């Protein structure tokens, strides 16, 4: 394993940091999230044209850059540093891999070039607050119960004259309010033979009703969608002969976890850097706050935690099987760093309008969507089989004879101290 970055990767990171530094200050971010789209459309097109950002991990035959998923993770560390509001996560880390893994040749040829060019954005719609389970990050997704079982709940699909019709509701869809394409997880096959499949729904399909939801983290906009007998297209081959969508979702979850972890590490590193800069110039008792030993110790602990998370992310970018563990480490580092940033900024840091709260909201919202951390670690341990071995044998326990009519228990031995006490009395 060679942990060094290539010249191309260094140049991509430098160019991306330069562009984002000009267009993604805290004020620009706050203005972008308050638009109808929830992001700066012009900046999204610039990143798509100059860097091919949404197509980094898409094959060249479909108009992408053709890089490895690790390059997408490195790019997302830079977007996380500035908390870039964009459809990158939903489009490049969730939707595009599923289209590539499950789609037919015609579907891949029709959709992937538009996704790679940034002309089409996409979102994954999973019924209920079960995105982490659907991606097999916090639990096993193979039963498909997360999609809403039975005859009601979730999204239902029924065949109709060679096509499909969907009806149901999904309350939390990342970028679902504005995406041009929706990948909807739905039940089909009736009650006894239900199966969860993925369907393609165009953003302008008749019967599709969408609305943007109020969220804790405005840089991750979410939409609520209602499917009222909406025409849909099955993603992939026929119901029985196609690839298993649950397996594809689990593989996509590992990529998404690595990308999310990279974003979290970038955000944590930037929150720490801003805090170090602030305590270096803020004076108290005639000296910088950062010169106090207690503050130095807290900052040193944060630095170690952020660097450990960054190392875990880089390893997961090389081996995506470690994506869930890297995500747990990165989310914890971001949560702790953002909380300490608010405290070390003093009285001004506690004001809701301060920039430090942007990082705190990102930490809290990401853990709600893709965590919590302890469940990420527990499921990763379960997948690795850490707790599946036989119990360690201990020393044998001597058998105790059962009392019976023919074998009465022996009376207890007399206590000499009690006899002495009676004689003294």
Automatic annotation (TrEMBL):
The keyword Hydrolase does not apply. It holds the Pfam family Acyl-CoA_dh_1. Residues 6-119 form the Acyl-CoA dehydrogenase/oxidase N-terminal domain. Residues 392-401 have a biased composition (Pro residues). Keywords: FAD, Flavoprotein, Oxidoreductase. Residues 259-382 form the Acyl-CoA dehydrogenase/oxidase C-terminal domain. Residues 385-425 are annotated as: Disordered. Its cofactor is FAD. The keyword Oxidoreductase applies. It comes from the Bacteria. Belongs to the acyl-CoA dehydrogenase family. This is Acyl-CoA dehydrogenase family protein. It comes from Streptomyces polychromogenes.
């Amino acid at each position: 394993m060679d942990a060094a970055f290539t010249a191309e990767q260094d140049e991509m990171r430098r160019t991306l940091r330069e562009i984002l530094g000009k267009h993604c200050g805290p004020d620009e971010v706050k203005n972008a999230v308050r638009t109808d789209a929830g992001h700066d459309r012009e900046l999204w097109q610039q990143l798509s044209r100059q860097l091919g950002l949404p197509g980094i991990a898409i094959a060249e035959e479909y108009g992408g850059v053709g890089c490895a998923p690790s390059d997408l993770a490195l790019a997302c560390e830079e977007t996380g540093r500035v908390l870039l509001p964009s459809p990158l996560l939903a489009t490049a880390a969730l939707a595009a891999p599923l289209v590539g893994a499950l789609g037919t040749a015609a579907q891949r040829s029709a959709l992937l070039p538009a996704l790679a060019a940034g002309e089409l954005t996409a979102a994954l719609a999973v019924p209920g607050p079960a995105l982490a389970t659907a991606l097999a990050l916090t639990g096993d997704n193979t039963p498909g119960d997360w999609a809403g079982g039975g005859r009601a709940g979730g999204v239902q699909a029924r065949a109709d004259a060679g096509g499909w019709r969907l009806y149901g509701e999904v309350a939390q869809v990342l970028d679902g309010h504005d995406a041009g394409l929706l990948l909807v997880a739905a039940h089909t096959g009736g009650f006894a033979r239900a199966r969860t499949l993925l369907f393609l729904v165009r953003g302008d399909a008749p019967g599709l009703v969408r609305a943007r939801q109020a969220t804790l983290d405005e840089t991750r906009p979410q939409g609520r969608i209602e499917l009222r007998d909406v025409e849909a297209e099955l993603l992939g081959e026929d119901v029985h002969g196609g690839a298993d969508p649950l397996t594809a979702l689990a593989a996509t979850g590992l990529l998404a976890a690595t990308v999310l972890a990279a974003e979290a590490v970038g955000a944590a590193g930037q929150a720490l850097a801003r805090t170090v800069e602030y305590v270096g110039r803020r004076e108290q008792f005639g000296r910088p706050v950062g010169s106090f030993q207690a503050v130095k110790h807290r900052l040193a602990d944060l630095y170690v935690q952020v660097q450990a998370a960054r190392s875990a992310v880089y390893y997961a970018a090389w081996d995506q099987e470690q994506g869930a563990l890297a995500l747990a480490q990165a989310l914890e580092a971001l949560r702790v760093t953002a909380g300490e940033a608010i405290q070390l900024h003093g009285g001004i840091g506690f004001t809701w309008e301060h920039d430090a709260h942007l990082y705190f909201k990102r930490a809290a919202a990401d853990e709600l969507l893709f965590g919590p951390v302890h469940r990420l670690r527990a499921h990763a341990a379960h997948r690795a089989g850490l707790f599946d071995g036989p119990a360690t044998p201990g020393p044998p326990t001597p058998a105790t004879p059962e009392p019976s009519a023919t074998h009465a228990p022996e009376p207890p031995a007399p206590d000499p101290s009690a006899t002495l006490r009676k004689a003294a009395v």
